[in-house]
C-alpha cells in the first residue's frame, strides 16, 4: 500500500502527464473490479478479481483454441524506455506456460514466456521488454499454454502486476557533455517527469567517481541545458546532475559523463545550424546542443567544411535522433562515401566513426537514408589507433597447405615486411573495400610450409617501426577433433556443418540457392561428404533454406533425419551423437519466421556452442530470462542478425570467447552492430571478462572452423572466402577416433544396494557407449571376470546377482567393441538383503502408487520409467503411438513393494526402432487391496 501512496503523490504533482502517458503502472487488484481486463476466450478463461488478487480459472477443453487469450489495457499508455520490464506475482495449481505479448504504439510486439509449476507457491516473474524501440506500451495480450491443445484445468492467480517504473522516481535522462570551445563544456539532458522538477543541481569534479556534495556542486538551473565556462584548457571534467522536485526532495544523482576541453585553435564541435543543408529544416529544442538542430527529410543532406591543423585519425561523433526507424545513412568524407548505421532513438545519441582527416580543408556530408533523421552536431576528436588484425591466430596444416589471409586495419601504417624465425615471408595485400585503410593480407603457403611443426610468432612489421605478432600453429600429422564445426562464407544467411564425435554429420541450413550451389555443396563434396546423417532448417527464409525448403539438399545428400524449428519446443533436451542439445528458441517462441527461428545450445565434454540463427533481441532476452544457466558459450554463431536486432545483455551474460557471423557488407551500416554489439556488448566484455577473444566476420576472413575436444582443448582457424576449402582431419561418416581408442566411461555408477527381494538385486549402469560389462568378487582383469551383461549406449540395464546374504564387494569393468577396457574396476557393495518374509522395513516403502514422467524426455537412445508400489502388485505397462496402436508392452505377474524402474529402448514388438513422434504410456497396477492406473506422454526424437 505504501507504494501506491507514493505513486499517487507523484501523479498529483504532474497532472498533465497522466492524461498522456505514464512512466510506470502498478495493478494491485485492490479495487475488486476488472477495469482494463478483457477476456477474449470465455470458453477457456474465467477472470475474477477478489481478495485483492486476480484469479484466472483456466479450463482447456476440446472447444478451446490453441491461442486463446485475455488482455490487459492500463489507464494510459506507458513509457517503458527507462525501465523496460514487466513483473507479476503469480501462483498456479496447474503447470502452465505463461506468455505475455506487449503491444506498443508503433505496432511492434514481442512474445515473452515463463513456465509456472503447479505447486501453488507465489513467485515473482520478470519479463524484459526489448521490442518497443522507444514506443509506449499500449496493452498486453496474455496466454496460458499458448499454441498448445493439451487438455488441462486449474486456477492461476495474479497479484501486483507492475509495468515499467512503478516507483515513478523523477530523474535525469540522456545527460551529454560536449566541449564547445577551449574553455566551455555544454551540458544537455532530459527528464522523465519535467513538470515535477523545481530545478536541477549541477555537480562537477576533476576525478571520476566523485561524490555529489556541497564541495562539488557548481550551479543550479531550471532549464535542460547548461554552459559551463571559464574552464581550464586541454582538461577533462566529470559531471553529474540531481533533480530537486516540487516537493523540495533531492533525488539520486544521474550517471556520470565527462568531456575534455581542447587547445585554442583546434575547433572540434560543428553545430548543425552552421552547416549547409538541403531538404531539411532548422528546428529549436532546449535539449539540443546550442538549442537548435536540423531535421532532414527522407532525401535530405547536411555538409560541413572545416580546416584541420594536422593530418591524422579522428573520431567523428555524430549527435542525432532517428525518430521512426533504424536508418542507413551515407557519410561522405572528402568525396568518399561510407554507409553508417544510425539507430532508432527518440533521445539524443551519438554515433562514432573513425576517419582520416587531412591537413587543410576537409568536408563531411551526411545523406539521409529515407528516414526522418535529426542532426544536432558533429564532434571531431583526435584519437590514437593501433593496427588490428583478424583473426588474431591461425592453424596451418602441412599436409593440406594453403595461403593464410587476414584482415588488417592499418590506420596509416604501411607493411615493410612479414617475418617468422628471422626469415622473411612472401605476402601480398589488396584493399578491403568496406572500411577506410583496411587490407586483405595474404601470406604465401610456400613460406608457411618452410616452418617446422609448432607455434610460430609471425611478425608483421611497419615502416613506422611498430610491429605486431600473429601466432600460427604449424601442424603435421594429427588426429581429428572429437567435435568439428564448419561455417562457410555464405554472405547474408546461414549454413553450418557439424561433425559429431561419432563421425556423423549435421547440416544446419544451406544459405541461398546461389550460395548453396556455389559454396555449400562444393564444400561438402570436396570434403568427402556424399550423405548427411542430419539436416535441420532453423526456419523457412530463402537465405536459410535455399529457396526450396531444403529440397535440393535432401535430394542430393539423402539425410537420415530431417528436422525444422517446428519439431522442437524451447526447453527440450536431447542427446545427439554424444552431444547434449538444449533448445533455447523454436516454433512456439514467436509470431513470425525469424522470432521462431531455431536457437540451441550444443555441449560436448564441457565445450559449449550456441547456434543463434535469426532470433531477435526480444528472443535473446527471453532466453536470458528463461534459461539463465544455459547462456554462457565458448563459441556463438550470431548469423547475420548482428546487423538486425541485438541484446547487449544477452551477449554480456553469454560471455563468449568467439563470435562468428555470416553476413554481408551491410553489417557495417547497422547500429545493432556498430553501437549495440561493438560498444554496448564487446567493449563491456573487453573490460569485464577474461574470455572474449574476437569476432570473426565471414565477409572479412571467409570460412571459420572450430575444433573441440573439451572445454579446455579447442581451437579455431579460417580459410579465405575465395576458395572452397578442404578441411584437414575431419572424420567422414565413419566411427570416430574417440570410439576406436577411448575406453567406455560411466555416466552413472550403481548405488551401493538397490533392494528388490531376497533372491536378487538390481544394479543400474549408464555408459557413454555400447559396452560389455563383467563383474566378479575381486578386481580382476576384464577377461578373468565371470559375470557378463551388456550395456548399449545410454540404456538402463539390470544385472541379477544371487543374494550373498552378507555384505560382499563386487567389482565391475566394461569393454567396448574395439577392445578398450575401463582402466579401473568399480566396486559395489552388495547386501545383506532382507529376507523375502520380512521384506524392506515399513519406513523404506512408498506410501502410494505413482507413475513418474520418463527421463530423459525427449529421448533418442532410450528412456527410463520409474514407478512405486506401496504393496506387492501386478504391473502392466503399454506404449501407444498417437493413432492408439500399441507398439510395446511390459508385464510383471508380481512385484514386491518398493521403488521400481524399467527401460524402453524405442523398439516395437518386432524389434524395430519406432519413428520420431509423441507416444503415450499407460501403467496399470493391481494389488490385493487396490488398483491404480495412470497415463503419461513422451517424445522420441531420432
List keywords for this structure.
44% strand; nine-stranded antiparallel β-sheet; 942 residues; mainly beta; disordered N terminus
Tertiary shape? globular
Structural class: mainly beta
Mean pLDDT: 84
Count of helices? 11
The stretches of 5 or more residues where confidence is low (pLDDT under 50) are: 1-21, 750-760, 793-800, 833-843
Q: Please give the largest β-sheet.
A: 9 strands, antiparallel
Helix content: under 10%
> For the CA atoms, what is the radius of gyration?
33 Å
What does it look like?
This protein is mainly beta. Helices cover 10% and strands 44% of the residues. The protein has eleven helices and 67 strands. Strands 21, 22, 23, 24, 25, 26, 27, 28 and 29 form a nine-stranded antiparallel beta sheet that branches. A seven-stranded mixed beta sheet has the order 43-42-41-40-39-51-52, with no helix packed on it. Helix 8 runs parallel beside helix 9. 40% of the residues are buried. The N terminus is likely disordered.
SSE arrangement:
Layout: H1 2-13, H2 15-18, E1 21-22, E2 24-27, E3 37-39, E4 45-50, E5 53-60, E6 70-72, E7 77-78, E8 85-92, E9 96-104, E10 112-116, E11 123-128, E12 137-144, E13 152-164, E14 172-181, E15 184-191, E16 197-205, E17 217-221, E18 225-228, E19 236-245, E20 257-260, E21 269-271, E22 276-284, E23 292-308, E24 312-322, E25 327-333, E26 336-342, E27 345-357, E28 360-367, E29 373-382, E30 388-390, E31 394-397, E32 404-409, E33 415-420, E34 423-424, E35 427-431, E36 438-443, H3 445-449, E37 454-462, E38 467-475, E39 483-487, E40 496-499, E41 505-508, H4 513-526, E42 534-537, H5 542-545, H6 551-557, E43 561-564, E44 573-576, E45 579-585, E46 599-604, E47 607-611, H7 617-626, E48 635-637, H8 648-654, E49 658-661, H9 671-688, E50 694-697, H10 698-701, E51 703-708, E52 714-719, H11 737-741, E53 746-748, E54 760-761, E55 766-767, E56 771-776, E57 787-791, E58 801-802, E59 808-815, E60 826-830, E61 850-851, E62 863-869, E63 873-880, E64 886-895, E65 898-904, E66 917-927, E67 931-940
Helix pairs in contact: 8-9
Amino acid at each position: 500500500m505504501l507504494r501506491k501512496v507514493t505513486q499517487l503523490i507523484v501523479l498529483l504533482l504532474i497532472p498533465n502527464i497522466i492524461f498522456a502517458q505514464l512512466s510506470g503502472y502498478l495493478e494491485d487488484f485492490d479495487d475488486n473490479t476488472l477495469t482494463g481486463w478483457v477476456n477474449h476466450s470465455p470458453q477457456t478463461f474465467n477472470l475474477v478479481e477478489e481478495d485483492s488478487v486476480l484469479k484466472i480459472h483456466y479450463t482447456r477443453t476440446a472447444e478451446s483454441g490453441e491461442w486463446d487469450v485475455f488482455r490487459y489495457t492500463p489507464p494510459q499508455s506507458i513509457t517503458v524506455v527507462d525501465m523496460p520490464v514487466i513483473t507479476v506475482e503469480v501462483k498456479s495449481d496447474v503447470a502452465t506456460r505463461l506468455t505475455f505479448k506487449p503491444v506498443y504504439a508503433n505496432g511492434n510486439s514481442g512474445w515473452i514466456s515463463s513456465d509456472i509449476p503447479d505447486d501453488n507457491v507465489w513467485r515473482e516473474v520478470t519479463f524484459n521488454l526489448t521490442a518497443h524501440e522507444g514506443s509506449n506500451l499500449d496493452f498486453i495480450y496474455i496466454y496460458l499454454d499458448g499454441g498448445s491443445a493439451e487438455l488441462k484445468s486449474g486456477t492461476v492467480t495474479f497479484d501486483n502486476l507492475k509495468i515499467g517504473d512503478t516507483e515513478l522516481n523523477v530523474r535525469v535522462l540522456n545527460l551529454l557533455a560536449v566541449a564547445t570551445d577551449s574553455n566551455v563544456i555544454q551540458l544537455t539532458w532530459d527528464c522523465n517527469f519535467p513538470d515535477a522538477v523545481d530545478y536541477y543541481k549541477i555537480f562537477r569534479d576533476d576525478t571520476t567517481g566523485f561524490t555529489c556534495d556541497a564541495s562539488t556542486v557548481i550551479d543550479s538551473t531550471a532549464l535542460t541545458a547548461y554552459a559551463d565556462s571559464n574552464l581550464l584548457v586541454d582538461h577533462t571534467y566529470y559531471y553529474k546532475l540531481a533533480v530537486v522536485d516540487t516537493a523540495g526532495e533531492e533525488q539520486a544523482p544521474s550517471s556520470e559523463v565527462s568531456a575534455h576541453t581542447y587547445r585554442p585553435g583546434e575547433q572540434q564541435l560543428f553545430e548543425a545550424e552552421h552547416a549547409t543543408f538541403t531538404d531539411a529544416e532548422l528546428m529549436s529544442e532546449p535539449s539540443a546542443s546550442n538549442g537548435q538542430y536540423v531535421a532532414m527529410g527522407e532525401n535530405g543532406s547536411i555538409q560541413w567544411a572545416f580546416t584541420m591543423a594536422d593530418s591524422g585519425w579522428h573520431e567523428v561523433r555524430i549527435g542525432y535522433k532517428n525518430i521512426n526507424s533504424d536508418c542507413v545513412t551515407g557519410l561522405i568524407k572528402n568525396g568518399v562515401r561510407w554507409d553508417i548505421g544510425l539507430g532508432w532513438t527518440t533521445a539524443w545519441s551519438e554515433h562514432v566513426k573513425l576517419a582520416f582527416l587531412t591537413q587543410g580543408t576537409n568536408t563531411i556530408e551526411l545523406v539521409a537514408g529515407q528516414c526522418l533523421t535529426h542532426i544536432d552536431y558533429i564532434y571531431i576528436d583526435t584519437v590514437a589507433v593501433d593496427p588490428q588484425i583478424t583473426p588474431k591466430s591461425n592453424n596451418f596444416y602441412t599436409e593440406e597447405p594453403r595461403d593464410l589471409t587476414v584482415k588488417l586495419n592499418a590506420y596509416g601504417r604501411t607493411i615493410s615486411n612479414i617475418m617468422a624465425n628471422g626469415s622473411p615471408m612472401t605476402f601480398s595485400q589488396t584493399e578491403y573495400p568496406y572500411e577506410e585503410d583496411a587490407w586483405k593480407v595474404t601470406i604465401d603457403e610456400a613460406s608457411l610450409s618452410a616452418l617446422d611443426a609448432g607455434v610460430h610468432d609471425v611478425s608483421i612489421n611497419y615502416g613506422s617501426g611498430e610491429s605486431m605478432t600473429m601466432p600460427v600453429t604449424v601442424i603435421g600429422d594429427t588426429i581429428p577433433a572429437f567435435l568439428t564445426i564448419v561455417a562457410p562464407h555464405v554472405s547474408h544467411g546461414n549454413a553450418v556443418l557439424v561433425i559429431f564425435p561419432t563421425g556423423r554429420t549435421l547440416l544446419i541450413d544451406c544459405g541461398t540457392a546461389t550460395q548453396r550451389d556455389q559454396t555449400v555443396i562444393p564444400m561438402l563434396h570436396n570434403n568427402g561428404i556424399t550423405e548427411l546423417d542430419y539436416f535441420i532448417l532453423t526456419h523457412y527464409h530463402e537465405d536459410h533454406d535455399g529457396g526450396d525448403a531444403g529440397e535440393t539438399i535432401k535430394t542430393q545428400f539423402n539425410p537420415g533425419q530431417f528436422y525444422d524449428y517446428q519439431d522442437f519446443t524451447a526447453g527440450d533436451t536431447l542427446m545427439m551423437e554424444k552431444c547434449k542439445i538444449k533448445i533455447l528458441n523454436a516454433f512456439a517462441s514467436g509470431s513470425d519466421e525469424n522470432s521462431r527461428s531455431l536457437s540451441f545450445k550444443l555441449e560436448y565434454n564441457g565445450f559449449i556452442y550456441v547456434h543463434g540463427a535469426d532470433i531477435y533481441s526480444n528472443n535473446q532476452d527471453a532466453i536470458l530470462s528463461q534459461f539463465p544457466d544455459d547462456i554462457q558459450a565458448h563459441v556463438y554463431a550470431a548469423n547475420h542478425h548482428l546487423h538486425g536486432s541485438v541484446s547487449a545483455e544477452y551477449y554480456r551474460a553469454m560471455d563468449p570467447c568467439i563470435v562468428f557471423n555470416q553476413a554481408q557488407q551491410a553489417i557495417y551500416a547497422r547500429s545493432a552492430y556498430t553501437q549495440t554489439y561493438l560498444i554496448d556488448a564487446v567493449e563491456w566484455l573487453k573490460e569485464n571478462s577474461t574470455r572474449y577473444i574476437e569476432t570473426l566476420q565471414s565477409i572479412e576472413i571467409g570460412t571459420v572452423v572450430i575444433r573441440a575436444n573439451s572445454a579446455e582443448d579447442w581451437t579455431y582457424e579460417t580459410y579465405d572466402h575465395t576458395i572452397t576449402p578442404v578441411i584437414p582431419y575431419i572424420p567422414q561418416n565413419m566411427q570416430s577416433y574417440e570410439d576406436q581408442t577411448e575406453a567406455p566411461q560411466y555416466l552413472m555408477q550403481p548405488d551401493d544396494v538397490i533392494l528388490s527381494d531376497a533372491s536378487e538385486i538390481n544394479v543400474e549402469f549408464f555408459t557413454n557407449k555400447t559396452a560389455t560389462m563383467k563383474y566378479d568378487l575381486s578386481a580382476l582383469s576384464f577377461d578373468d571376470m565371470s559375470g557378463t551383461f551388456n550395456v548399449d549406449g545410454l540404456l538402463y540395464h539390470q544385472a541379477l546377482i544371487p543374494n550373498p546374504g552378507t555384505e560382499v564387494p563386487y567389482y565391475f569393468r566394461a569393454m567396448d567393441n574395439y577392445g578398450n577396457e575401463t582402466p579401473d574396476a568399480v566396486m559395489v557393495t552388495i547386501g545383506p538383503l532382507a529376507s523375502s518374509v520380512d521384506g524392506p522395513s515399513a519406513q523404506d516403502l512408498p506410501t502410494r502408487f505413482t507413475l513418474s514422467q520418463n527421463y530423459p524426455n525427449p529421448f533418442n537412445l532410450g528412456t527410463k520409467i520409474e514407478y512405486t508400489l506401496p504393496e506387492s502388485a501386478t504391473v502392466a505397462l503399454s506404449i501407444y503411438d498417437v493413432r492408439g496402436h500399441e507398439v510395446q508392452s511390459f508385464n510383471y505377474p508380481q512385484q514386491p513393494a518398493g521403488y521400481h524402474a524399467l527401460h524402453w529402448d524405442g523398439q516395437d514388438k518386432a524389434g524395430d526402432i519406432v519413428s520420431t513422434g509423441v507416444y503415450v504410456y499407460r501403467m496399470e497396477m493391481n494389488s490385493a487391496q487396490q488398483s491404480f492406473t495412470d497415463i503419461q506422454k513422451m517424445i522420441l526424437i531420432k
